[in-house]
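quick one, four chains, predict together pls
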Amino acid sequence: MNETVQTAVIGVTGYAGAELARLLLHHPHLQSKPPVFAGRVDARDAERGGVPLGEIHPELANSHGSGKLVQQPFSWELLEDLGVEVLFMATPHEQSRQWAPEALKRGIKVIDLSGAWRLNEAENRAVYGFEDEGSAIAVTTQAEAVYGMPELFRKQIATARLIANPGCYATSVILPLKPLASAGLLDLERGIVADSKSGVSGAGKAATAKTHYMYAADNLSAYGVFGHRHTGELLEQIGLEREQIVFTPHLLPIPRGILSTIYVHFKTPQTKANVMHVYREFFAGSPMVRLYDNALPQIQYSVRTGYCDIGVQLDAGGKRAVIVSCLDNLLKGAASQAVQNLNVVEGWSEAEGLE
Amino acid sequence: MNETVQTAVIGVTGYAGAELARLLLHHPHLQSKPPVFAGRVDARDAERGGVPLGEIHPELANSHGSGKLVQQPFSWELLEDLGVEVLFMATPHEQSRQWAPEALKRGIKVIDLSGAWRLNEAENRAVYGFEDEGSAIAVTTQAEAVYGMPELFRKQIATARLIANPGCYATSVILPLKPLASAGLLDLERGIVADSKSGVSGAGKAATAKTHYMYAADNLSAYGVFGHRHTGELLEQIGLEREQIVFTPHLLPIPRGILSTIYVHFKTPQTKANVMHVYREFFAGSPMVRLYDNALPQIQYSVRTGYCDIGVQLDAGGKRAVIVSCLDNLLKGAASQAVQNLNVVEGWSEAEGLE
Amino acid sequence: MNETVQTAVIGVTGYAGAELARLLLHHPHLQSKPPVFAGRVDARDAERGGVPLGEIHPELANSHGSGKLVQQPFSWELLEDLGVEVLFMATPHEQSRQWAPEALKRGIKVIDLSGAWRLNEAENRAVYGFEDEGSAIAVTTQAEAVYGMPELFRKQIATARLIANPGCYATSVILPLKPLASAGLLDLERGIVADSKSGVSGAGKAATAKTHYMYAADNLSAYGVFGHRHTGELLEQIGLEREQIVFTPHLLPIPRGILSTIYVHFKTPQTKANVMHVYREFFAGSPMVRLYDNALPQIQYSVRTGYCDIGVQLDAGGKRAVIVSCLDNLLKGAASQAVQNLNVVEGWSEAEGLE
Amino acid sequence: MNETVQTAVIGVTGYAGAELARLLLHHPHLQSKPPVFAGRVDARDAERGGVPLGEIHPELANSHGSGKLVQQPFSWELLEDLGVEVLFMATPHEQSRQWAPEALKRGIKVIDLSGAWRLNEAENRAVYGFEDEGSAIAVTTQAEAVYGMPELFRKQIATARLIANPGCYATSVILPLKPLASAGLLDLERGIVADSKSGVSGAGKAATAKTHYMYAADNLSAYGVFGHRHTGELLEQIGLEREQIVFTPHLLPIPRGILSTIYVHFKTPQTKANVMHVYREFFAGSPMVRLYDNALPQIQYSVRTGYCDIGVQLDAGGKRAVIVSCLDNLLKGAASQAVQNLNVVEGWSEAEGLE
């Protein structure tokens, strides 16, 4: 266990990047080695030594010593000069495909927040249309990527060089389903339905017809039906065939938060106590999952926290259950899960800097 | 077919009541016989001849001749004196249980917007805990109630004396499922999931912890899991056993609108063309259902209209489908469906006054 | 008075254009001569005879006979062939500067919803930076433009060929101030403050950083301080010097509606009865203004109506007043005021088609 | 300076109370002496030793060691037994009027978040209708109350026994105006306008017609015109006559945050540099005020922070200015300002526990 570590973030301009910046800047173990922010910076910006984060995210302005809050022009030399050991990439997946191998080659560990390295199966990756699909470097890199969900892969993450931080929707569906699947409780023949609803920050910072206030507000819409990119993560991590689950995302008229309503059949009748026991066993030692015994979680309880909240209700016969999970798509669905991974890598307490 | 008819509304103070008032006041066939508004009125209000609707619903103030826009103290004599032939009851179900039989006895037809007379099976009614359950008058009254969904029971509604206007959630689930169930396409063994989301007006006008802005805004919550009152309507009207469907309502942070995401398995592989053909046949002659061929409906398209919008997407194998339906909970889910029923009863065009 | 008239709309793709389409399609006098929708249409769209409005505004789909709901490629020949007599331009002001003179030359009356022809003073127009400023044609055209606020210029509008439909903010400030200014009540030396708040539809349909849901939602921001384009309309129509009023617009996290809070000093102490009397006199015969005697208007009362609502409260001494006005920025602030102008031009009832 | 201090909170069930609990639980100086939560607890609740905070505020559940997160039945003995030295009262003002003197008598310092002790002038207090107005104990108590705005009264707060934490609106108006008034820049004859807009949490946790989602959402309304209770704070703290300012609050459809748009006239023309210099001098050493040089603050920048943000824009002549201030009504408008006062009292860094 190191006392501290030099980190860097590429892509601090997006919503997840801002949350990551905020978390790292307050992380107890990083006070003596604040993170480096690097990225695309115009020539003019470069001249003045970078872009003050306060200009990118006004809500971060003045809140901290302003000297360190600058996004600098990215270069590998910069990272080397500063002795960066762990690189967070909050970048589009195309960029992560290119840069992650380069970072590994230079001996820098990578925690990648994009979808670039999450999927082991070529069939599941197809939806991304990676240009370098099948290339030697891509195959090698994928081979050493670890799916960055500490609740499932704590041990592997601890020694990983490349951590593929999970998708936000995927996190909200895998965490509540994995324990039940592992315990062999689920009747997969009858199929699982995951009906997920996400706030608009999940759609990213680009101004598009769908992120226009007039489109999102006072509205609800389903999208990506039978075709959302996160589906592959569900299949691989829960261990499902494609026809065993339907996953439908919806665009919710709120800034942030995901609620997934998940419908399962049990092989044999269960009691709620049973099911909660399975969850409790599975998540023993997992500080960022909260189990609800007497109620169902709601988006407002998990927003702006690093938790994934899980609750469950069974029907009278004990053969069917509705599971509700909630999390903040920018935190447990992105930035705080990334910090959780850093904590595991460094041997720190898993919840460090997340409360 | 009558040119016009004398109508009355009890319960104009709620959200659905306000929409009903608005629709009836603009109804082409009611211009010469504007509706009577009757209800609970204090002694002081009674003295001045009733409560101006503009005080109850400021948005209706000044919009029409103000003389007729008064809620008068309710009495059976009033209705008789004014020659009321059709009575809309936008009242709590306990009140509808008491008053609907009385109105029928007096020869007044009833269109009841509550849950009082929707359910034929005692088992399904149990959730309401009606005090008069099993009484002779309740049995007789229920026997002649017709479920007021014109797309299913147009013929029976035309001659009915008591019309039980459907629940808002129920409408959004029955309309998209009934055609497929009737056509025998559905594999009911594998179960149906109806994941519904409704705006806050569905929770009524009472100020409660759950209708507080701070509870509903920026939030999403599931409720009534495995126990919502509208479930019985789904079972009876679609023709399902209780274990063949799960219905989960959610409270959406918007004023109005329902979106239901419905998951079905087909007995044999279908094409989208197939399914749309079944819908088109079923809804031929149903002006208040809109089918979406090339997209899925969204809440914003149906809000403030009398339509139920339906769209569907199949998976690659044609064995599973996600159906999305949308409607305005206060209109097709309440007030405009009531007016649709009036139109059918009077032999007018079904969409009269609804565009 | 003509029984009907052939109208056309250019620019039906925006928010105000959609409202205009909806109003004209339901206008009692236009049932026999539905409006023509013309505009920019791609070659491919042109081939199929235009773009169905249901593709541009899904909420208009299926609601009407679909045959007439097509946006056709614009050409002057088209307008001539169809005998268009009144042209609504819901276009950017640059386009209105070019096309309005052309329409007038061809004997077509114009109701222009842009800021192109609203301002008489070159100084006030400067903020628009019109390219043709000062040209002969611009001078001539401006000279015959009438400011399209029927409550102020009913008589001039009736015979006008070019009507400059007022700005949304301007309408919400001029209507409550003009009666008091005309009556000589206001102490202009002490200055007027107009603090206005508008929903996001006022910012237009373009997806920009400021119309992104994440920027507008859960937020409030002031903009255009001391420099908003509508200021000139206030000066010219109320009759003020620039230093006599401050007008500050704010972006409100709601889809539509404007509320203006206006602060005035009176020359001599007034009573509320006094002030309401002045309003009542001024707005006698103005069906689209509603006065509030016992309360202040709120945005929710005027949204989706064609009204401008006005209420006022005086301080104890009667020397100061806070006036609150509300309207729907897309209706009384744009489309319904345009229809009101059409009604005046054609000699129809001013509120025709607006309730 | 003490290393730590024993604090207690009465009234942890409201919105401000929850924020206060959260801040105190994370306060670096209180880690060894966590705050005591006391309040109204039913007999049944008392039996089990109090109400777990996780039941009152589910978002606080599980986030901390649950043992300490219990609201206990209030009694003076409890406070004495636990050695409470500083008592936060997040209670209705009637209760604060009664209990604050009692606490002082027992040697406990009070930081009161209500309006009970903010006003020195009987005339300004009249709006509260205190039952004990004019009583000896009330007079004595008021005499030693210090207005708890550290930016104005840091020195007095340090030695105060009773601190009257300012109103949320008042804070947003006093902080931007006081420096300019103190510097003698303002032309008070021409009057000041403070047009304030607040999120719904400002209306409290009680479910009322005005906090109903359907009332607040998609709406904006002015209230308390010429009569809001915070007016007295403005007069006393800025040093104004009643006729020199108009203050109008509005209910904004967002959960939290206040934006005040303030209109002033200067006695002599100013430059922006001038004005910013005055601000910078005044707020030197005030870590919880952020000045905006190049833009205006927005609600989203200050929500969930302890800052009051201030920006200003002058007209061309330099005689008039629009000042915009933003803060979180539950933090700088209540809980974090209370913690700021604690920090001053204890001699800790003023921003301790607030970033």
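Chain A has two domains: 7-165+334-346, 168-327.
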